[in-house]
Structures are given as structure tokens and as C-alpha cells.
Amino acid sequence: MLMKRRVELYDTTLRDGSQMEGISFSLEDKLKITEKLDEFGIHYIEGGWPGSNPKDIQYFKAVRDLPLENAKIAAFGSTRRPRLRPEEDPNLNALVESEAPIATIFGKSWDLHVTEALRTTLENNIQMIIDSIEYLRDHGMVVFYDAEHFFDGYRENPEYAMKTIKAAEEAGAERIVLADTNGGSLPSFIKEVVEKVKEEVKTPLGIHAHNDSELAVANSLIAFEAGVVQIQGTINGYGERCGNANLISIIPALELKYGVEVVGKERLRKLKELAHFVAELANMEIPRNQPYVGDSAFAHKGGVHVSAVLKNPRTYEHIDPELVGNRRKVVVSELSGRSNLIYKAKELGIELEERDIKRIVEEIKKLEFEGYHFEAAEASLELLIERLRGRYKPFFELERARVITEIFQGQPPISEANVVVRVNSRRVHTTAEGNGPVNALDLALRKALTKFYPELKEIKLVDYKVRVLGSEKGTAAKVRVLVQTSDGKKTWGTVGASTNIIEASLNAIMESMEYWLMKEREKDEK
Amino acid sequence: MLMKRRVELYDTTLRDGSQMEGISFSLEDKLKITEKLDEFGIHYIEGGWPGSNPKDIQYFKAVRDLPLENAKIAAFGSTRRPRLRPEEDPNLNALVESEAPIATIFGKSWDLHVTEALRTTLENNIQMIIDSIEYLRDHGMVVFYDAEHFFDGYRENPEYAMKTIKAAEEAGAERIVLADTNGGSLPSFIKEVVEKVKEEVKTPLGIHAHNDSELAVANSLIAFEAGVVQIQGTINGYGERCGNANLISIIPALELKYGVEVVGKERLRKLKELAHFVAELANMEIPRNQPYVGDSAFAHKGGVHVSAVLKNPRTYEHIDPELVGNRRKVVVSELSGRSNLIYKAKELGIELEERDIKRIVEEIKKLEFEGYHFEAAEASLELLIERLRGRYKPFFELERARVITEIFQGQPPISEANVVVRVNSRRVHTTAEGNGPVNALDLALRKALTKFYPELKEIKLVDYKVRVLGSEKGTAAKVRVLVQTSDGKKTWGTVGASTNIIEASLNAIMESMEYWLMKEREKDEK
């Protein structure tokens, strides 16, 4: 599909997005995000609601000094209060004082809201819309009218809903944005209503969808197909409750599926970067499975998929991951077979011989059945491959380990570990205390090994995760331990599994050290 | 909208869902999920791919003994290989040997796949579809035919795509499932294609959508509107890459927005419970903003919304949260702590006095800050409340506990625990060996306490979970242990938190016993 259509992107991450539980942007965050959105080619950036809090007033002052290239800044607010004249309304005056070129104001389209929430008459609500738009225009602002709850209102009283937006049109609003504020509308209903509105309203339309039914992206795209010009949304779909329409999914659909130029192909390659940048400032993690930009969005696990993707990526990829700045990822697991392993080994720089492949695949399947899991533990996978190929020469042997934890009533617990390690023909016995039994073991092992490999001081554990498998067996269940270790430059993952948490942890920790020593030796050999 | 339409739900969490990076279900997990899905009213449960791994073969054996009420079990596989006769094909024979009543097999609809991935002729592919379906039917199986990449295939070569499903129809497939395998299709295209297929194919249709474009729920609902009978998906949308269509969002849309009876209103109230149950076994967290079932799906922050919602919930809620087992959440200051506590205490049958409330709220806040979490540990909460009100009389005191784990090279690890417990003026010292340190402690503690409270033999740990908090501190991080205990009639949860996993576990285990003893004493006093 190739469309010569104009589309405007209107981002409200800084206003509606910041209503999400857990998000709280500082003024600096908001300015940084504004610059990034501008760079990326977003057309309108809603910076805040100056009438609602002092941080937003400051934002509108500060943003005037940003040298923006593409974006226009919009300030958000509402129509005047039922019993105030516009010039008396602090909310409208805050919009004017923001000096933003655009004011986006919301008003009521749903009769229920007018009578129950505003407690005024249907006629006065219409007058409020007209007065507010005219007042802002008289002060030189471009006005976008946001018809709150338009779809719910239309469902219950279509005549009245239509009347409110016609009033906005006559008062001079330059966009009329239809909002599915509660996020409850179905795509087919959105289509029907947008088409009806287009018959009666000439002003360019917008869509503002929420994700309460997991339909916000679809509803935005369907409204676009039905003739809407402006799409409102937020980065990563942040927003109150279940969030707003996710621009990070909408933009590539427009560019790559509808063939509409929105930000251009060059900028589109920074989509993943943009998503992660905003997530970072919002202190949120990007889910691995987030469409287009998650780390696993183009991950292939099933054996059938992998072999086909290697022959021709189109077979299992809806778009080329590089177009949105992402990349393909092949995952090795029990579900996969030969081709995943071969691909993965290549990534690790290992050329596998035919006679090794079968043995390694079988060993992986066996271990995964026992509770191992190599997806997040590629270092353990590499060690396994090297061991089975006979390429791994051990750096040390653990003869024995013991860890004791003692708890005395009313006192903090004590954990102490002993290990006996052999390196070549030397035998070392060390002991250490820790915060807990695993920490004690980690410390005792390091004490022993740094005598032979002092460079081990450079590495440290950065993440430690425990998962109980088949937990219905209570405390006799099996556990899997995942460890992430870093040398300050790179990070690698290892895994251990056992019914005994101490053994599982010890194995994962030992492998984290063995992996790093192996890599250091490889460097020396080059 | 009220529709008298038949809809079938086909769940593939155990097969397609388990392809998600990070998910690895044990055999027990798979059986438990099967029971839960059956209870919830899912019509078909795809249990696995018996031709691909040993765990799935075991599953199909074990599942025959489950007393299922609603669901039929399906085994997944593919059409025969290009150069094998059906009776020689190990994959088809694994389906027959699974003894599942239904075989769902996928075949190619996209000419590109036939020539590039399968490397065979378009004619042979048609023959493979026919042979495979006939072979499975001859062995008494009902066959669902999954037309892989149907939409992509149709886009490029509609005649051939249509030919493949007509062949499946003639060979006797009882459902033809149209798959958007790469998740790249737009809703309007899905609608167009389903309508075209319906004109030419009489067999009931299904839809199998993936979420690569954040459109899987919309595409499934739109296919339903266009006449599809079966909707395939997974719980919470788990699945490879960006996941499958999320049944947790599709089911309430069908029930509450289309007015179609799918699982019934009673079961729908367990939607949130189902979503969390599967997430727990998948070791995934439910995102707070997940539609319908996330903890914040009906959370209201800030003034306008809250006051309107309190006047009339419909103003900012698309459905009543209780219909899906969720609840409204008003995010306000510490006042919400108070009212939550009073509400919760009432549920537990405790009438709190004014002077206790403040102290308890503060203690809970302090403990939650330290890593405790009472949502899944109401027994610990109840003990806490009773302790702070001075109503709890202790049953025993732990004087000290010690646990030793020893690992000798090449031998299984040994864990041994000692505990000293005082009951009234008597002091008992016991020791026990276990599978791991926590199991050893649990056994030693029971040995000691059953001398005084022999009825403790009736209770047993049924679940044990460990979560590492602030895991970036490596093995010195804090851990939270959640324990579920059962007396065969009811199950209760307790929690412990510490930097020492042994201490955290011991506390959770002790509380599980204390809680039960307290409840037994209350019974006696009545």
C-alpha cells in the first residue's frame, strides 16, 4: 500500500504519558525529551498542562529557548469553567501565559459528563466550547479542540456529540481531535464514527486513543484509514491506566506498511534509540517483546523458523529489523535444533564440525530438561560447546566447598564458607564470611582463585536471580540460578541448576569466572 | 452490540507461548496450566509439539489422566516432509502416538515458503497437505489445518494460497485456521482476506494472529467480525518475538463488548486470577498497565478523574473492573494506606480500633520498604496485625538454627540443619538432612515442633518462591521468599525478607506454621 497522505504526529508523552503510575519527569527530563522528539521529526509536542502545576509553567518558559527544528509546542488545558467568563478563567489564562503557539483544550462531548461531572446544562457546555476557543484565538493562539469521550458520547447521544464539535469548528478550532478517553471502543466502531464525522465536519480531524482494550494502535491506524490527519499518542504508549496509543508502533506502520512519509526513512532507523531514551528518563524498562523495538522483537527460537530465516529473512520477519534500528537475534533452547546452534556458534566465532553438532544439541536438550536454561546464559553455552569439543582446558578444580549459616534469636545471621581449590598441583584452602550463604561462597572462591589469577579482581557479579522450578514440591524443589557478571566493559550470563540452591549458585558463579578466564587466555593467544 | 454467535477459544500458551524467550515450562507447570485453562472454560488446549521434544511426549501421556471438564487437547505438528510418505514421517507418527483427540498441523500457503524454505514444488506442497490430513484422519484424529503465513501468501499469490486451503478442506480438515505468522498484517487487510476466504471455503475458519505490529488483539476481533469461529491465542499474549494474540484481552472484549457468551460471566470474574496464575508459572510479571488485569488497569491518579469516577464510575472506566476480577485503585497519599488496611482487616474478620490503625500502617510501610510484600502473603499480614494489637500469643521460640551445606567434587551435595526450639519451658534440639539447605531447615523445625503440636503433620509446603530484590548488588542483594502452605483444605501465604536467603526462608516457614496454629487455636476457642 502506498499512500500520498498527510499525517501529523502529536506527542503527549510529557502530559498524558506522565500521568502513568510510576512516571515523574523532572523539568530537565521534559526538555531533553522535547529535543529528542523534535530531532526525530514529531510535528507537535504537548509539553504539559500549565494550569495544573508549577513545573509545567516553568517548562513553557524554558522551552522557548530550545532551538527546535520541526516541532511546534502545544499547551494543554480545558474549556472554561461553567460559571466563569473566559477572561476570569485561570486555566485559560495559564494557556495564554504559556506563550505556546498552540493551545489544545478538551471539552465534553458526552451528555452524561456534562450533567454528572460538570453539573451544568447541555447548552452551557456548547457555549463554554465556543467562548474558550474564541478567547484563545483572540490572544493569537492556534487552537486544537480535543473532544473528550467523543466515541462514548456518540454511542449514547450522537446528535449532541456532533453538535459539540460543530460548535468547535464554527468557533475556529484548527483541528478537531476525537478522543476514546476510556479506551473502550472497538475498531469497527471507530471507523464508523470517524466516517460519519467526516461527512459533517470539514476541519482536519485527529484521533486520541487509549489502550484499555489493547486496541489503541489499531484504533489509531483505522481512524487514519478513515480520514484522520492527526494521530496523538505517546512514546512506548505511556499513560494513565493502560496507557495511550503507542507512537513507537504507529510510526513504523505508517512508514513501512501504508507507505506514508511521516518522519522519513533515515529517522525511522532511530526508532529503537528514541524508545529506549524515553524509557530511560521515565525509569521504565522496555519489555523485551515490545513490537519493533524490544530486544526480542526479532528473536527466533523455534528450529523451523531459524532455518527458514537464515535462508530468507522475509519468511519470518514482517519488516527488516534494521529499518527501525533493531536487529535479528537467534536463541538457543530445547525447542531449537541444529540451525540455531550453528548460527549461535557463528555469532560466538566458533566454526562447528558436523560430528560435534549432534552431540551438543543433545546435551543442551538434556540439560534444559534438568532445569538449565541457556537463553540468558550465553557464557555457559559457550563453555558447554568448548567442553564438548574438547577445547576447554580447566583453570581450576573445586575439591570441596562448605557453607554454614547460623541464626541466633535476636541477632543478625552469620554465613561462613570454606572452599578447597586445586590449580595444577597446588591446593588452596580459604574461608570467608558473607551477607548470606551464596555471598560467602562467592567471596571464599575469589579469595582462593585470585592467588593464581589476580586479574579476577576486575570482575564482579552484577545480577543474581533465582527461580524455583516445579515449586509445588515446596522446599525440596529444583532451583535455577542465573548470574550476570561484568568486567566493567562487557557483561556475561551463566546458569546453574540443582535441587540445592547452594550448588546451583556455586556452579553459576564458577562458570562466570571460567568464562572470563577462557576469554582472557584467548586474547593472550592471539 | 449483542451477538448470538459461536466462538471457540483455542489456547496455545503451552506450545506457541512457550516459544517466548525466557519461558520454559516444566511438565508439572504444563499440567497445572492445562487444568486451570479447562476450569476457565477454554475449548481447546494445544499442549505441545510431540514431534519436537521429549517433554511434550511425556505431557501427552500424563494429560490423559487429567479429569478435564470442558477442554479438548490438541497436539501440534506439521504436514509430512516433502520426500517422505505419511507413514514414514516421524512427525506425523508422533501426533498419532500422542493419542490426543485433535491434531493441529501447519502447512504452507505462501509460495515463497514452499520454494525457498521447503525447497519443493507448489504441486507437491498441495499433495503434502492432503496426504497428511488424510493420514491423521485415518488414524481417528480430528484435524485442524493451520494455514501458516496465509495473509502474506495471499498478498503475493492469492490463487495459490486459496488452493492450499481448499485442498485442506477437501481432505477433511474440520477447521481452517488462517495465520498471520509474522504479525505484519493490518486490520483492514485481515478483514478483506477473511471475507474473501469465507466466500470460497465452507469449513469453519479460525484466526491465529501474532503481535509484531501491536495489532494481534484487533486482528483477532476483526477476523471474528468477518466470520471466523475459532480464535487462537495465548494467556497474556506470550509467544515468540512480540507474542501471540492475547486471550486475556480478547475474552472480555467478546463477552462484554460484543455480548457473545464465550466462558460465561461467572468464569470471567476469574480472568485476573488466570492471568496471574500463568504469569507466575512462566516466571513473568504482569505489567501493571496490562489491559483488564494489570494492577493499574483501573487506577486513577489525580483530581479530575478521581472525583468524576467517585460520582459515576462509567465516566472514566470502560467496564466495571469487578467483571474481570480486578478492582478500582485510587492512587492518593497515605490516606489510601489507611482505607486499604481497614478494608483488608474487615475481609480478615478483624475490627480495627483507631489507635492501632496508624501504628499498623506505619509498620507495613516500613516492612515493605525493607522488601516485604503482603499481597501474596495475607497470613503474614494477619499475624502482623494480631502481633501489633497484642492479640498473638507465641506457640514457640526459635533459640537458634544452623544449616551446613557440603559439596564434594563429583558427589551430590549434602545439607544438614540443626534447630533449638523452646516451647513454654521445654527445650528441644533436632537435626535433619534435606535436598537443600531450606528443605533441611524445614524438616528439622517440623521434627522439633510436632513433639508439641502433632497436628502440624497435617500441613505441608506447596510452593516456595524466591525473588532477588535490587539484584544489581549481585550475591549480596536482598531476597524475598514467598511460601504457600496447605492443610489439604485451604492454602495460605507467608513472606520473609533478608539479605540472607536462609533467614528469609526460615521466617516465612515459621510464620506458615504459626499462622496455622493460631487458626486452630481460634477454632478451639469457639
UniProtKB/TrEMBL annotation, chains A, B:
Keyword Amino-acid biosynthesis: yes
Domain of life of the source: Archaea
Boundaries of every Pyruvate carboxyltransferase domain copy: 7-269
Pfam families on file: HCS_D2, HMGL-like, LeuA_dimer
Pathway terms, separated by semicolons: Amino-acid biosynthesis; L-isoleucine biosynthesis; 2-oxobutanoate from pyruvate: step 1/3
Presence of keyword Transferase: yes
Family note: Belongs to the alpha-IPM synthase/homocitrate synthase family.
Name of this chain's protein: Citramalate synthase
Species of origin: Pyrococcus abyssi (strain GE5 / Orsay)
Taxonomic lineage: Archaea, Methanobacteriati, Methanobacteriota, Thermococci, Thermococcales
